[in-house]
């Protein structure tokens, strides 16, 4: 797979990579990997939330307020 970057992004990578002790290719690979990992996690969490809604596992506005209030008072909300 090839990824084509515009000149500005290439320049930024070439500038920051040596400051981190890496080459631009390694930095780009790491950035893409982090983005893909985050997107996988995010999609999974959204799907999990949608399943909970379908199962009726939702909180009322009032319950959310109580949990936030408890957190702000230094308590631990129920799981």
- Taken in chain order, the helices and strands follow as HHH
Poorly predicted segments = none
How many separate helices? Answer: 3
Q: Report the major sheet.
A: none
**What global shape is seen?**
elongated
Can you give the mean pLDDT? 94
Give the percentage of residues in beta strands.
under 5%
Terminal residue distance: 43 Å
Query: Could you tell me the number of beta strands?
Result: 0
Helix content: over 70%
Instruction: Please give the radius of gyration in angstroms.
Output: 21 Å
How many domains, in number, for the residues? 1
Which structural class best describes the helix and strand composition?
mainly alpha
Structure write-up:
The chain has 79 residues and is mainly alpha-helical. The protein has one domain (7-72). It is built from three helices and no strands. Helix 1 crosses helix 2. It is elongated. The mean pLDDT is 94.
